[in-house]
Amino acid sequence: LTPTPSHGLSFQRRPTADAASANTDVADIALPHWVKLTRTGNVFAAQQSEDGETWTDIVVSPALDIAMAANVYIGLAVCSHDTAIVTGAEFSNVSTTGNVTGAWQTAEIGIAQPAGNSAEAMYVTIEDSAGKSATVVNADAAITVRPSWQEWAIPFGDLAGVNLSRVTKMVVGVGSKASPKAGGAGTVYVDDIGFGSPIAP
């Protein structure tokens, strides 16, 4: 059961292993939203609610019968469905009934980059001992929201006019250096800064 901010609620399932999945959608839901999945033997039923009190069936015909082992894992997950966007969610009022055992466990999938970064470009300014400088802007205007580690290789040619043997200052910035604006938020990690030619393997 997948609530989404812009595409309603989807009851998605794969009745046969390695076959295509199917889904039943409920449009125009408001968040937060409550969902319930019930297993009776091998029959699965889904319900949804706007308040956690009054439940409405998500009708599947014929009844959803999927042969499974007696013991299975259950869980909650969040996903942006976009490899370029980090997302986050808060789960609350989680409960189980019946013969459910074991403690809840959590795990980060991928890099634990905090969700909610403002989408901004980044730039690097290099300055030499004579005060000459060059600024290079990353080509990705929303690099601050990328969920994975990003390598940024800057050719020496982009730093023309700067004496690279007399570098005295380097600035890594977020946003526009020419017209900075306040209001951005988030966390960015910068590491493995290097200079020179790569060592041949």
Q: What is this structure, in a nutshell?
A:
This protein is mainly beta.
Structure description:
The chain is mostly beta strands. Among the domains are: 64 residues, no CATH class; 53 residues, no CATH class. Helix content is 0%, strand content 25%. The strands form three sheets. Strands 4, 5, 6 and 7 form a four-stranded antiparallel beta sheet that branches. Strand 8 and strand 9 form a beta hairpin. It starts with a strand and ends in a 27-residue tail after the last strand.
Main attributes?
10 strands; 25% strand; mainly beta; 201 residues; three-stranded antiparallel sheet; four-stranded antiparallel sheet; elongated
Shape: elongated
Instruction: Tell me the total number of β-strands.
Output: 10
Arithmetic mean of pLDDT: 87
- Secondary-structure element order, N to C: EEEEEEEEEE
CA-atom Rg in angstroms = 25 Å
The low-pLDDT segments are none
User: How many H/I helices?
Assistant: 0
Task: Kindly name the structural category.
Answer: mainly beta
**Fraction of residues in helices?**
under 10%
- Report the sheet-strand fraction: 25-35%
What separation lies between the terminal Cα atoms? 48 Å
Write the layout of secondary structure elements.
Layout: E1 2-3, E2 9-13, E3 22-26, E4 34-40, E5 43-49, E6 56-58, E7 64-65, E8 122-128, E9 133-137, E10 167-174
Antiparallel strand pairs: 1-2, 2-3, 4-5, 5-6, 5-7, 8-9, 8-10
